[in-house]
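Supplementary material to the annual report.
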Amino acid sequence: MTVSLTLDNVSAHYGSTQVLEDLSLHVAEGELISLLGSSGCGKTTTLRLVAGFLQPTAGTIRLGDRDLTRLPAHARNIGLVFQTYALFPHLTVRDNVAFGLKQRGMGRKERDRRADEMIARVGLDALADRHPANLSGGQRQRVALARALVIEPPLLMFDEPLSNLDAKLRVDMRVEIRRLQQANGTTAVYVTHDQEEAFSISDRVAIMNAGRIMQLDTPEVLYSKPANAFVADFVGFENMIPMRVVAEAGDAVRAEMEGGATMDLPRGTFDVPGRDFILAARPEGLLVAPEGSAPGIPAKLGLRTYLGRAYQYQCDTPAGSVMANGPLSAPFDAGAAVTLVPQPDQCCLLPVEA
Amino acid sequence: MQNKTHPLLIAFAVLVFFFLLGPLVIIIGSALSETSYLTFPPQGLTLHWFENIFEISAFRRTMATSFMLAVGGTALSMLIGIPAAYALARYRVEIPRFLGNVYVLPILIPEIVLGFSLMKSLATGLGLPITLSLLVGHALLVLPYCVRVVGASLNNFDFSIEEAAVSLGCTRAKAFFTVVLPNIQAGIIAGFILAFITSLNDVSVSIFLTGPGVSTLPIQLLAHMEQFFDPTIASVSVLLMLVTVAVMAIVERTLGLTFLTK
Ligand SMILES: Nc1ncnc2c1ncn2[C@@H]1O[C@H](COP(=O)(O)OP(=O)(O)OP(=O)(O)O)[C@@H](O)[C@H]1O
Ligand SMILES: [Mg+2]
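Predicted assembly:
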């Protein structure tokens, strides 16, 4: 039973403060989408809306062809995994997992059988009779996962499920979550503020800011082609250089940066989004080259650090300080005058936001 | 840091214990005396004064009333207190803070004022029968304990547990009974016990609400004392003490006393 989840122009308020603004999101059948964003951007709020713990002030939420918007939370049949696990302290692992089945009126024998089966699938066979207080964090997380999975929900939602675990376990568990989600073909929404976690297990990632989705795309696209300055900054484009088109020079566009230096950007390799734009680049997207060897940004080198795969330089340009990488084969000395050459496949030209 | 306890500190601790426990020892001693007046140390040893409690019908009757009030009043108070504590904890952000404090007013107001105002409103104003106004009065008297102690365990309660239950198919109401109540059980028992003891030992509120034919044990004790000054008073006091100690012992055995101070 796989279904899609659709949020159409959903807004949410706490009291008079708006937390989500006109949010639209479509999660395809069997897809895992992550909501990624800094604290307070509305990730949990989005989950609570879908779960039914909060009513949207506008918009609709649909699961498959079912309209959830006015359905009470207990009738939505959505599997939820909480950041704090939210296990029932007074019940054993088995009774925790069987809880949802019991609510569905299933007899004790059958629900215990199914619970035990699911407990075995998450590798906790030996612990079925324990209470949550006597489990480690990772084990609790597995119980929470089993409890959500056993009701075979068409939609699974995770709210920062791994943030209370140590680094090693986080990696193991996220792989496990992905494996179980794919095995069941369950549609899933996964909330996290850990970029690596989101990118590693998601089909697509929604990067959120202040109650809005800034970009929703595959991790690959987000990583290499952010659509706006916010996303670029989020995924590690450290250098943001504002530019302005000053002339069309044949098959190139001449752009001027702050401080007056100009640079020719060949059409076809660079897609200039407007008169004013931002050149965004990671350090490896700006190659340190001898002065005048190629069109680029004039710079004077500052501190050099060794990264193993390259040297990294702190550079002074007319537009301010930037970080750029240079090849190991040809180290430059501090104070050298160089050109920083934008690498087309590792830079983006972004529109300036109003 | 030196590990040896300062002798002054020891002396101080001994003094505190002496003043706390001394009067109790005197009462227990007096209750056992063979004399027909209160005296300490006891002259001779007898349990006669304890039998006497049960022989005097007024004591028997008021004892029953007191227990009925303590159980009934506390139960009534819990019926209001648990939902109130739940709402205050669950909607901490939404509910104005002063509302939470309304529930502890009965502790903050001098008891004698509370008793007097209850007499004015319940007995005189509404004209409630004595037993009923006593029941309502005691329920109000112990309400702060119910709300506060149950509230303390609700403040430690992770409400996402309740949401987990709802997401698994429980209605809100059912989730309250199947996952919230079992997890604040200890707080409810502790609140019940504190309230029970408070009600059982109350004088200030009861004295305004008791009337012809209906009284409580502590009030009867006062009445008895005005006429007779025999060791029965001491033995009733010892009895009340024993009930309190017994209840505490049960708590200690089942939940641990630290629980009450949490
Ligand atoms: N019960 C509430 N009452 C009022 N405002 C709230 C409430 N819950 C959340 N908010 C506000 O709504 C905004 C979004 O909150 P939300 O919990 O969705 O953030 P989040 O993205 O999940 O953040 P985090 O990563 O810290 O969990 C925040 O600014 C928060 O302060
Ligand atoms: Mg959150």
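DSSP finds 13 helices and no strands in chain B.
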